[in-house]
Amino acid sequence: MLLKWNFKRITLILGLSLVISACNTTKQNESAEPLVKQGAVNAPQSILIKKADLVLLQDSAKQWKNAQTNVDKISQLEHKLTQLTATLTQQIEQSEPPLSEPKETIL
Asked: Averaged over 67-81, what is the pLDDT?
């Protein structure tokens, strides 16, 4: 019962963290500036992005930095839960008495 409750709790925490850390997306305008700078001589690897896209990327980076510690904690909890489950399974297998043949009763 306790293991089932912990599993539900961890699943809820994982789900909430994914929802919180989800990135916002926006529609791209058809008349938007081109993303790749055409004919760049000095810096062929330069990329032009819109200011709104830059703000979204910065917000996503901030969200990840805020959520990263929680994700690491959840990952550690998941590892501990896996270890506890394996240990519990071993203990259950060791504590169960071996099955024996039923004795016949004489009437």
From this structure: 91
